[in-house]
Specification:
122 residues, mainly alpha, 5 helices, 69% helix, 7% strand
């Protein structure tokens, strides 16, 4: 079931979302300061490529640097990604068929809002 969900996800826009994250991750990695943020974008790209069968876990014991990076992430406007996933999750949840895709968007929402200190789990 996870394989079928991932194939449908890729065909219905998941590949575009993953490419978006990967391209912006490469652009962020061009600068030394942007490398940690680029790495988080690559993590989002990997999760956006195959979201079914994976989950996101927010670590409660985050370090001070993770908190600072999350604040910088939010202040610099990357919270708009989380807003996109929230909107798409609500839009997908309107139909019964779209509920699994809504759940996938909400997993991406968790990781895109606070990427530092969050981890994918299999």
């Amino acid at each position: 079931m996870n394989a079928l969900g991932n194939i449908l996800w890729l065909l219905l826009g998941g590949l575009l979302i993953s490419l978006y994250y990967a391209i912006y991750g490469m652009l962020l990695c061009v600068t030394i300061i942007g490398i940690p943020f680029g790495i988080q974008m690559f993590k989002l790209a990997a999760l956006a490529l195959c979201p079914f069968g994976r989950d996101v876990e927010i670590m409660a014991d985050g370090s001070c640097i993770q908190t600072i990076f999350n604040i910088i992430w939010i202040v610099t406007g990357w919270w708009e990604i989380a807003l996109f996933h929230l909107f798409m999750g609500i839009l997908c949840a309107i139909t019964i068929i779209g509920i699994p895709f809504a759940k996938a968007h909400w997993r991406l929402l968790k990781m895109s809002f606070l990427p530092f200190g969050s981890a994918r789990t299999m």
